[in-house]
Structures are given as C-alpha cells and as structure tokens.
Design goal:
The chain is an alpha+beta fold. It has 21 helices and 17 strands. The chain has a domain of 205 residues: Aldehyde Ferredoxin Oxidoreductase,  A, domain 1. The protein is 36% helix and 14% strand. It has a 6-stranded mixed beta sheet with strand order 2-1-6-3-4-5. A hairpin with a 3-residue loop joins β7 and β8. It is globular, with a radius of gyration of 22 Å. Bound molecules: iron/sulfur cluster.
C-alpha cells in the first residue's frame, strides 16, 4: 500500500560501533510523531532500569507528524530519553528549523544508542540528501553553543540547520539542554529542548552536534495538496482572527503582570507569589527598548505565524539573546529576586551558551540563595556562577547544573520546589491547582508543557478533569509538531491529519492517540520503578501558603490527583480546547 509516507525513514546511530543505518519507517507508526513516537521507541527499545548516562539509554530526535509540511507553526522537534534528572521518561521539544529539515529529508526519527569506548572524543552527525555519516568533531570539544554552531554552519549551505550541546551537556549535568538553530540568517542556537537533562544524554554519547542539510528537498506532499493548502489558510486565518493570537503576539514575557496578579509569579524561591518590583520584569519594558536599541519580534522557525519570540539587544544595539521568555524572567529573575530584565537577558544568554534549562537553573540558584549560599538578587554573582563554575564543572557549578534538588539536598535545605525531582516552572500549583495535578501525575514531573491550566477557580475533581484533558490535548499537540503557542484544538489537528493522509481521522481516534502517548509514558515510569508515591508534590508546596493571608496551598490529596491517570468519559468540549503552555 503506498501513500504520502512512502519515503519515510528511521535513522539509527550506534555510538558504540560508530555506525549509521537507515531503515523504512513502520507503517503502523503513521500516527506517531514527536513526543508519542519518542515514547513508543523508548518503551520498545530502552531498558527503563538503565543508567540514564550509560550505553543502554536511547536518545530519540523526532520531528512532529506535520513537521516539514506547509501546516502553520508545525515544525517542532522532540528530544526524548530516560531522564538523568527524574529517572523517568522525558520529552522536551524545541523550535528552530532542524525538525522541519529532518522531516523534509524523510527522517521521522533519529535513534541514537550505545556509547563510544573513548569518552574523550567528540562526534558529529551529518544528515543530507546525499549522505548520512558520523564524523570526528574533537575540535568542537568544550565549545559554547553559539561559537560551535557558527563554526559548524559557516561553510555549509545557507539552509542548513544544527542541533548541538554546550559544555553542560558534555559534563553530563542533569539540567543540560539540546539546542536547535533558529531560522534567522545568523542561525543562532537559541531554541532549546531544555527540560530533564536531554543534553546530558546526548553528551553521554559523545555526540556534540548534528547538522542537517536539506538541500533542495521539498516540503512533504499531502495526499490532497489543494485541500490541505486551503485548510491551512482557513486554520491560519482563524488563529489570527479569533483572539488566540493576541495571547502570544507580544511574546510570553508580556504575561508577567497577569501572573503576578494571580499569585503565580514566584518570588524568592516561592516564599511569595507576587514580586514587589514586578514592573521591572514586565515584558512591556522589553518592548519599550525595541525602539531605542533595535531587536524586536520574530519567528524562530520557518512557517510560524505566531512570531512570539523576542530578540533582545543591549544599550549599544548589539544582540544579547532570544527569546527572553516568561519562564526565564520568572525563574532566573523573580524567583532569585533578580529584578532587572537586562540581567535576566544576560543570564538567559549564558544558559543558552552553556546549554542548560533556564527553569531548572533559575530554581536551583533560588534554592541556593534561600539556603544562604548567595545574597538574594545577586545578579553578578549568578552570572559568575554560570560563567566560571558551571561551565568548568566546579563543585558548586555541578551542584547547580544538576538542578534544584541536587543543590537543595547538598545544602540540607527544607524548601525544594520539585515534583519527581524536576523543578517547578513558573505557574504555581497553589493558586493553580489543576496545574498542580499535572505536575503530580505527568510522567515528566513538574512540566507546564505537559498540561497547563490557568484557572484559579478550579479545585478538587474539576481540577483533575481539567488536568487530564489538558494532558491529552498537549500530548496530541506535541506529537503533531505544532508549537503549543499556536494552540491548535484536537479538531484542528485531526483535520490536518485527515487531509495530509487522505483518510478521515475521527474524534475518538485522535483522543486515543493522545491517551496512548500518556499510557506509554506512565508505563515506562512504572517499569523504571515509579510508584503512586512518586505522584506527589514537594512538601513545601502543601505546607507553606502564599497569596492572601498565606492561604493558598496545594491541597489536592495524592489519591484525588491520581484520578487524572484513569481515563474519564470524553466530552465534546475536549476537541475544542487549544493546547496551552
Ligand atoms: S510560536 Fe514562538 S516558540 Fe513557537 S515556533 Fe513560533 S516563534 Fe517559535
């Protein structure tokens, strides 16, 4: 049976034997992609009990099902593995162009296994129309991400893209990220699959970078090109016209005042939900600076119509970083009482250079400050810590680079806001209880992209249902390749699939796809030794209140949270909910 997937392939990279092999993509996996493909491969091929940094872990690079097509904002790349941070399954995804470029060449997944005998060497992987090969990359050893990608892409075609790790990945730190280059002319490694230490796993395999040269490869061709193209136009117009675009067109940084109002702009390691100097971290300050310094809004990947990403310049008009996101302003800024957005921009650049998750590192520094290791608000100290300690593997740098739990345990500190060992993102589970249910029950640990619900009115079983539905919608979105900021509904995604594959995808089928992804992830964790006791929240979030009269605590009992892992009857409204992060 032939179809639009005829040329789809899997690329296997064996880092023990230092060989590559290409095989046909299984037809049965047609509706797997990105996060759901990664989960299936890990469940089938990775020993859940393995050492995350050993040869038996499997690193998966998987574009979404619609990546490389003309569907708007659909080119995300998922990175999956067993997490060295949580010990469970992990998927983190990023924008930039590598996902689309891999998919244009027909690669629905790159599966990296094994580990070289000589761990001092570094390797690069070249993927192009003509060849796939591993190549020695020792000259890139220890390089920071920006210099690495500039050198890597300098003599390559203008449409080449790259995936890389920085020193943190090479040091195998548990907060290490995987960087993807954006679509701009400079092709900056500013888009990160950040959470859970996926960069440490790439580093454990001594794979410093992947470069993709799509050459003249065309967009993936749908079964019905005319209908698919028309649908994309209708979908784009709906998104731009129905209010969804208004949420993100100024960038996530403009969400700071709203979050502060809701008591979910954590301050000083979450001892408060509001920051008295919130105005200095408001994304409005960033927008004011565009007129004086340059920079502005752009899209990080080809075909994105949201354009949520900001480009930050300094007072001289020189590039500093992109994008300075709400999460980064919260964790590296407010949570550490570093209340100057320009300092946070410098810290963001350092994190991107070293290849670490800004959420985990911000939370770790906040714990360090809270336990007396540094003064609150010491921006220069935090920069020096990253630049001089973390980058070189110094003792405190390693503890911070291994995340909030690592430094918190070392400091014997009582306030470590994590779930399954992963630091909480900005959105606090005390005012936003449905988000807390997600953090407790997701196989990923505390991850807002697993199913964020921003509704302070929800409690009890209503919060459980909202969390479950958000987890299903986000799982489908993360498999599709759509950026969550596009907020596609299940109906919109299944319509794209139907026209791309030329066969109707029903509501029941797309809901099953999302649920199966969650089941696969939970099953991996069960096999890794996780129990119901792991589906909980750090004690400090249950015991220490914030908000009015410090009355807001996370008070949904574990047995009620657990209901989110038992499938509830489908409601029509599920299919009209957009993904959210
Ligand atoms: S919406 Fe933002 S993060 Fe998503 S692809 Fe577009 S620019 Fe990148």
């Amino acid at each position: 049976m032939s179809g639009v997937w005829d040329n789809d392939k899997l690329l296997r990279v064996d880092m023990t034997a230092l060989t590559v092999a290409v095989e046909a993509y299984p037809l049965a996996w047609k509706y797997l992609g990105g996060r759901s493909l990664s989960a299936r491969i890990l469940l089938d091929e990775c020993d859940p009990g393995c050492d995350p940094l050993g040869p038996d872990n499997v690193l998966v690079l998987a574009p979404g099902i619609l990546s490389g097509t003309s569907a708007p904002t659909s080119g995300r790349l998922s990175v999956g593995c067993k997490s060295p941070l949580t010990g469970g399954i992990k998927e983190a995804n990023a924008g930039g162009n590598p996902g689309q470029d891999l998919m244009k060449l027909g690669y629905r997944g790159v599966i990296v296994t094994g580990q070289p005998a000589d761990r001092e060497k570094r390797w690069g992987l070249v993927v192009s129309e003509e060849e796939v090969r591993l190549t020695a990359a020792d000259e890139y050893k220890g390089m920071w991400n920006y210099a690495c990608c500039e050198r890597l892409l300098a003599d390559r075609p203008k449409n080449a893209s790259a995936i890389s790790i920085g020193p943190a990945g090479e040091l195998m730190l548990s907060a290490a990220s995987v960087a993807c280059t954006d679509k701009d002319k400079a092709r900056r490694p500013a888009r990160h699959a950040a959470r859970g230490g996926v960069g440490a796993v790439m580093g454990s395999k001594c794979l410093k970078w992947v470069v993709i040269e799509p050459g003249k490869a065309r967009l993936r061709q749908p079964a019905d090109n005319k209908a698919f193209t028309t649908n994309n136009k209708v979908f784009s117009q709906a998104y731009l016209g129905d209010g969804r675009h208004n949420i993100f067109k100024g960038g996530t940084s403009t969400g700071v005042p709203m979050a502060n109002m809701l008591n979910t702009f954590p301050y000083k390691n979450r001892t408060a939900g509001r920051n008295p100097e919130v105005d200095r971290l408001d994304g409005a300050r960033i927008h004011e600076a565009f007129a004086r310094r340059g920079g502005g809004m752009h899209n990080c990947m080809t075909g994105c119509i949201v354009r949520c990403s900001n480009i930050i310049h300094d007072v001289e008009g020189s590039y500093v970083t992109s994008a300075l996101e709400f999460e980064t302003l919260t964790l590296l800024g407010s949570c550490c009482a570093i209340n100057n957005w320009e300092d946070v921009a410098d810290l963001d650049r350092l994190c991107d250079e070293l290849g670490v998750d800004t959420i985990e590192i911000g939370a770790a520094i906040a714990v360090y400050m809270d336990s007396g290791g540094m003064e609150w608000g010491d921006a220069e100290g935090a920069k020096a810590l990253l630049r001089n300690e973390l980058s070189k593997g110094g003792e405190i740098g390693v503890l911070i680079g291994n995340g909030a739990l690592s430094i918190g345990v070392h400091r014997n500190h009582h306030r470590i806001p994590v779930a399954k060992g992963q630091a909480l993102p900005a959105w606090d589970p005390r005012p936003l209880k449905a988000a807390g249910v997600t953090y407790s029950t997701s196989a990923m640990g505390a991850d807002h992209t697993a199913g964020l619900v921003i509704d302070p009115e929800l409690a009890g079983d209503a919060a459980v249902r909202a969390s479950q539905e958000a987890q299903v919608v986000n799982a489908v979105c993360d498999a599709s390749g759509f950026c969550q900021f596009m907020q596609p509904t299940l109906d919109e995604i299944r319509q794209c699939y139907s026209l791309f594959y030329g066969e109707a995808v029903t509501r029941a089928q797309i809901a099953d796809q999302g649920w199966q992804c969650l089941e696969d992830e939970w099953e991996f964790n069960r096999r890794a030794g996780f129990t119901e006791a792991d589906d909980d929240m750090a004690a400090c979030l249950r015991e220490e209140g914030i908000g009015p009269d410090n009355s807001l605590v996370f008070d949904i009992p574990p047995d009620v949270c657990a209901k989110a892992k038992t499938r509830l009857p489908l409601r029509d409204s599920l299919f009209e909910k957009g993904a959210a992060a």
